[in-house]
């Protein structure tokens, strides 16, 4: 970074280092996102001229905007409005969260209800805003991080954001990295995969297991076909921090070369070391290529985006002390979620299991057990326009999907089960153009197991979940600039 840059306080340097490290790591890891093998980065490849948009930072810019507009606290309702008004991405848990909010699922349940990606990496990547606003205040950091994560995640996703946020809050306040990691583990409930995976990495490091031997064993224990699986990626983040031994370059390169959700792991590693050692500690060879600009993609709308990392630092620092401190209550892990009545939600349709006379309620995504056990079912698709739609039919044991008697998808068995409109296997999805009116959908599953994994998803051309009903739902997502 430019050597002429100076900071009025140590905390200012740490916050600027946080956002700079976040941008560097995200830029480094983005080209390799989703690769699950050991990689061989030694620098940016390709070498950038700016830090490209990345949801790791973008979502936190939404929270920054939200807090600037709020009083002395933010609530679950505030987060819900922000999701609907400002976040228009469809990826995994983000798309499910918006779909649940659009339908009126109780806010306490939007992160878990019919959410295959509730253990995804979408929440641990947005921990820094809470660490920066509450340096040294681990309890308040944990409270707001858990509240934030609960909108689109379940237990493991919440655990990941709490762990990373608490660790970063403590290092922002001057606590050493190892002490901060140890303390953050105390905020997680026993039995979580996140806790188990991070504990394994720490033991291996303490016992002098070589870095890449630890990596191999970690994948044996916690590998997942979904490259965004949070317990694994949070553990890879801690792995890179420990084995990188606080050297910025060594650490972000380990994170990127460890594979999986590489932009997220490298970004979190970079942000953590920036908080730990300040912006001055980040080598110029890493900061110079990306500059100081802040850029967002078309899925973020209606917020005041800071044009530079310097401005982001100033706005972040001005918000310290605005939100009320909170006590952390471990009962957060054991709270009972409200039941969801599908019949009372817009977008719900009747799905008739094969060979049965009584339909079951359903809206989209994972199929009801009754339909799985029956080996399939039928339903009506009510069309009000001729706009194309994308359909995903994905089943672990294979399936066939018909529209008005015509086969449109023959999903082979044993495809990776990642039921997301934008990254399911090509053989499990199709774009269809059928006219307005009522169309008969028929699903044949290769298995009749009630416990099988099987989903059918209807989506708009922009990949957001769409209703099977003629009635549209409010807050349709927009991905292009107005």
Largest sheet: 6 strands, antiparallel
Total number of distinct structural domains = 2
Provide the succession of SSEs: HHHHHHHHHHHHHHHEEEHEEEEEEE
Strand proportion, as a percent range, falls in 5-15%
Oligomer: single chain
Q: Per CATH, what is the topology of the largest domain?
A: ADP-ribosylglycohydrolase fold
Distance between the termini: 35 Å
Shape assignment: globular
Q: How would you write the strand order of the largest sheet?
A: 2-1-4-9-6-7
Q: Point out poorly predicted stretches.
A: 1-6
Q: Gyration radius, to the nearest Å? A: 23 Å
Please provide the count of β strands: 10
In the CATH hierarchy, what is the class of the largest domain? Mainly Alpha
Mean pLDDT: 95
Secondary-structure-based class equals alpha+beta
Helix content: 25-40%
CATH homologous superfamily identity of the largest domain: ADP-ribosylation/Crystallin J1
Structure description:
Helices cover 39% and strands 11% of the residues. It has 482 residues and is of the alpha+beta class. It folds into two domains: 10-332, Orthogonal Bundle (ADP-ribosylglycohydrolase fold), CATH 1.10.4080.10; 342-459, Jelly Rolls, CATH 2.60.120. The chain has a six-stranded antiparallel β-sheet. Strands 3-10-5-8 form a four-stranded antiparallel β-sheet, with no helix packed on it. Helix 11 (230-243) packs antiparallel against helix 12 (248-257), helix 11 (230-243) packs across helix 13 (262-277) and helix 12 packs antiparallel against helix 13. The chain starts with 9 loop residues before the first helix and ends in a 23-residue tail after the last strand. The relative contact order is 0.15. Residues 1-6 have low confidence and may be disordered.
